[in-house]
Amino acid sequence: MMNSMTATPVTPEARAEQDSSIIQRIQQGLETTPEVHASLAGETPILEIEQFSLWYTKAQAIFDISMAVPRGKVTALIGPSGCGKSTLLRSVNRLNDLIDGVRIGGRMLLNGESIYDPSVDVIDLRKRMGMVFQRPNPFPMSIFENVVYPLRIDGESRRSVLAEACERALRGAAIWEEVKDRLSDSALGLSGGQQQRLCIARAIVAEPDVLLLDEPCSALDPIATLRIEELIHEISERYTVLIVTHNMQQASRVSDFTAFMYLGRLVEYGMTRDIFQTPRLQETEDYVTGRFG
Ligand SMILES: Nc1ncnc2c1ncn2[C@@H]1O[C@H](COP(=O)(O)OP(=O)(O)OP(=O)(O)O)[C@@H](O)[C@H]1O
Ligand SMILES: [Mg+2]
């Protein structure tokens, strides 16, 4: 999709020259301007990332990333291993705070409110964002107690409230029918795919503003993966989802918007359809078609 403001038409040669220089510039540590498509401008952001940088002790992992994550949509973060996808995701709910030596620059806003403001209650912030990791991590307790855990630590103990929330979350995570007769059994007895759907139930039980998913299907077989993908699609009707994935087909199947990252920088960001079918940069095309990365 061309920017209608562009005055002179860009020849394919000039474009190739311009495009190839972006990855080279990143590799050389030079400043770059990401290709952010105009389609983003029509969206209402729930999460605004502004000139965000992050250092692990001395090594910089995120370089000056600015991107707005649209409310009520699924946004995928893609890019080669080590490009900073998980780091960026963990920055959103401040999980990186737990790592010694992490330093940040720039800002992030959730619903217009600063995530890193010193006055922010981090526990409260994390309650507004459910997170699901690569490997299912059910707690060694019953299915029921796993799901209602976030409510319990929030002080809720009324049995009827917990039971209702548990059923709602398990239905929302498309696993209710499979577990409704064994809620007091250990969650560790579930299959990997069931455990991951249980973890999604736990992540949505407190009705978060944003659901953060870090490669949620990479430990699952194709059938379980398909179920989770369907689930992400359903969930997206009620929540904003930010998902990291290595799998290009998955990104194109489940997301509305896709951000391509490389070496800690945002390279191109737009509607998933455009990123996969008509990317502006040759590198994006090479990456999404599996020619590099
Ligand atoms: N806890 C940490 N301490 C120091 N460096 C880290 C830490 N976590 C990640 N890094 C470094 O930050 C960079 C980005 O890593 P990150 O895990 O965010 O990448 P990623 O895109 O999620 O990769 P993958 O696709 O392999 O999961 C890498 O160079 C990595 O080595
Ligand atoms: Mg990662």
Could you characterize the architecture of this molecule?
It is globular, with a radius of gyration of 20 Å. It folds into 2 domains: 12-128 and 208-288, Rossmann fold, CATH 3.40.50; 138-207, Rossmann fold. The chain has helices at 12-27, 85-92, 122-127, 143-153, 159-172, 176-179, 192-204, 222-235, 248-254, 272-277, 282-288, and strands at 35-36, 45-56, 59-70, 74-78, 102-110, 113-114, 129-132, 210-214, 240-244, 257-262, 265-271. The two termini are 24 Å apart. The protein has 293 residues and is α/β, with parallel strands linked by helices. Helix content is 36%, strand content 24%. Bound molecules: adenosine-5'-triphosphate (ATP) and magnesium ion (MG). Magnesium ion (MG) binds at residues 85-86, 244.
Sum up the structure in keywords.
single chain, 293 residues, alpha/beta, Rossmann fold, 2 domains, four-stranded antiparallel sheet, disordered N terminus, binds adenosine-5'-triphosphate, binds magnesium ion
Major sheet: arrangement of strands: 1-11-10-4-9-8-7
Number of strands: 11
Quickly count the domains: 2
β-strand amount? 15-25%
CATH architecture of the largest domain: 3-Layer(aba) Sandwich
Overall residue-averaged pLDDT value: 91
Q: Distance between the terminal alpha carbons, to the nearest Å?
A: 24 Å
Q: What is the name of the CATH class of the largest domain?
A: Alpha Beta
Give the distinct bound molecules: adenosine-5'-triphosphate, magnesium ion
Give the CATH superfamily of the largest domain: P-loop containing nucleotide triphosphate hydrolases
Tally of helical segments: 11
Largest sheet geometry: 7 strands, mixed
Helix content: 25-40%
Low-confidence stretches: 1-6
Shape: globular
CATH fold naming of the largest domain? Rossmann fold
